[in-house]
Design brief:
globular; eight-stranded mixed β-sheet; alpha+beta; Aminopeptidase; single chain
Amino acid sequence: MTVNPIPASSRASSALARRCAFIWFIPTPYDGCVTESRAASIRPLNVSDIDVAVVLNNAEVPNVGPTDAQHFGELLNHSGVVWGIDAGDSLAALLVAFEPGAVYESTNYCWFNDRFDDFIYVDRVVVAFELRGQGIGRAFYERLAAHYLGAANQMTCEVNLDPPNEASMAFHLRMGFEQIGSKLDDSKVVALLSKPLGGSRS
């Protein structure tokens, strides 16, 4: 995917920022009907979504890495998928995931990229406050697993161990992830997680 150079992001209102919450930090009960409905509304993000995506993301720093318009444009360029879900007329949730060999300097991504050549890495999932408890995390993960079934043999990500993120770890364990390593990431320790996807195409 290629995008044109991105202009500097406009300053976002604090009111919009307060709508946001990072889905991995929220235990969300599974409601099959709601999850299926949300999964059906998942769409690829594009250049026109960048300003709102930056607001959603930066409301959750340091739970997720900070971004700006230029950086998010680079995510669009180099990631495997960048998906979103709308609430009304506005972007309200997003997922960014990377394939092997991507131009991406995240040390957590590099940990997987140095060890495996067949995976999909979930870089971030962010969801607006009003969508909590509606199965957004599960919908994103199930769509991602279906999208890469037969093309990658595992889905990977990291979760904070120190300081601990118990809700995130519980969510990922319910989704079938297992810890395969750990590492120091700046001032925190993270668990490196993996979930089998059924093997890649030969």
